[in-house]
Design a protein that fits this description.
By secondary structure, the protein is mainly α. It contains five helices and no strands. The radius of gyration is 26 Å and the shape is elongated.
């Protein structure tokens, strides 16, 4: 009598599901970031420097007097985070990171399954 089959055709294993999820997250995240960047670039309004020339320098000077150079640096970073291009790059980077984690977990699951099969096969040998 033949041993029962442990895997039936059509059943998706955990590692395959992780790979599919990683690919979907990767593609959707990069595509979403691209679309977001294009939409935001077209609808961008004028900046404070466009409306009031010299505003950024005056603000940086005031912040430097009140808080110091660290405050000026942090406000520069905050201004950079308001840019649609950087937001899109951060979205794409996050989706790539999550996708890589999914692929890595899938490879670890495969390695664990291989190791388990090897141990079972060694136990069966006389």
């Amino acid at each position: 009598m033949a041993p029962p089959r442990s895997r039936l055709p059509g059943i998706v294993t955990l590692s395959k599901r992780l790979r599919i999820a990683g690919a979907v997250i990767l593609v959707a995240g990069v595509a979403g970031a691209f679309v977001y960047d294009r939409v935001q670039a077209r609808s961008a309004g004028p900046t404070m420097d466009d409306l009031m020339p010299g505003y950024s320098q005056a603000r940086a000077r005031q912040v430097g007097i009140l808080i110091g150079s660290l405050g000026v640096t942090l406000l520069g970073w905050l201004d950079a985070l308001k840019e649609p291009r950087l937001q899109a790059e951060l979205m794409a980077g996050a989706s790539v990171g999550v996708g890589v984690v999914c692929f890595r977990l899938a490879s670890l699951v495969d390695a664990h399954e291989r190791e388990t099969r090897e141990r079972a096969r060694h136990r069966e040998l006389p």
